[in-house]
Amino acid sequence: MQFGRSYEEFEVGATYKHWPGKTVTEYDDHLFCLLTMNHHPLHLDSHYAEETTQFGKNVVVGNYVYSILLGMSVPDVSGKAIANLEIESLRHVAPTFHGDTLYGETTVLDKWESTSKDDRGVVHVETIGYNQDGTVVCIFRRKVMVPKENYLEARGGEQPGRPAPQPDRNWAGPAATTQD
After folding, report:
1. 179 pLDDT more than 60
2. First to last CA, the chain
3. Region Disordered: which residues (predicted)?
4. CB atoms within 10 A of CB 45
5. Residue by residue, what is the 3-state secondary structure of the chain?
């Protein structure tokens, strides 16, 4: 399974459909709100939301929607990233509710080589998130610094830093045969 891409693997115009989706529960939303100290009643107080808002029910906090979509994109976009450089824009265009399932996809808008270091480049992408009905709920654009192949090779290849399992009294090693 691929986890991120090198600069050379990105093609302008390519779209990556992130899988699987994520169903947002009331618990997820409330925990995120409490962890981030966002106590707005639109997100936490169902009576308030039912009685005083146009939605008639709690709306999932936007930063959680964004965080889910950003996380979904990591295996396809930024799993090998050196740095996230910029969130250029972030728009919430429709509400997300408890029980909605979010899906996302990212399109490569542009890419260019670094002018200061020849072992990396920048990829400009747009991610859209939509619910189970196909309604787009969130759109954001970001710029990600990603390594070139030579950067990865110099640091251990596809899975840098991954240790090899060491034989010991519990495991004899890959060449040993096991008897039942």
Report:
1. no
2. 31
3. 152-180
4. 14
5. CCCCCCHHHCCCCCEEEEEEEEECCHHHHHHHHHHCCCCCHHHHCHHHHHHHCCCCCCCCCHHHHHHHHHHHHHHHHHCCCCEEEEEEEEEECCCCCCCCEEEEEEEEEEEEECCCCCCEEEEEEEEEEECCCCCEEEEEEEEEEEECHHHHHHCCCCCCCCCCCCCECCECCCCCCCCC
Mean per-residue pLDDT over the chain, rounded: 93
pTM above 0.85, yes or no: yes
Write down the residue that tokens 């970001």 correspond to: 142
Burial of 56 (0-12, 13-18, 19+ CB in 10 A): exposed
